[in-house]
Amino acid sequence: MGRATPxxxxxxxxxxxxxxxxxxxxxxxxxxxxxxxxxxAWGEELGAVTNYPNPYLLGSLLLVSVLDLEWRxxxxxxxxxxxxxxVERISSG
Length: 93
Fold this sequence. Notes:
Elements: H1 8-22, H2 29-44, H3 46-51, H4 57-92
């Protein structure tokens, strides 16, 4: 007898299929491109989502998206500071 309850991975793949068929296609091109980055982040953190006790899959994935955006923002801020420091060094030297 097979498994009666689908695994989180199965639910995740089903959710991706539904999102791509019913939602992503309706988005503007640039938002569809952004979805690919979000989908990548979700895939990279699926282990964390799988082990998180909250059963609301989409909410967990959205949390991953927010965290990924925060990480990207901090990385951009760091790069900007580095560039500003470099400009200051060149200007004063």
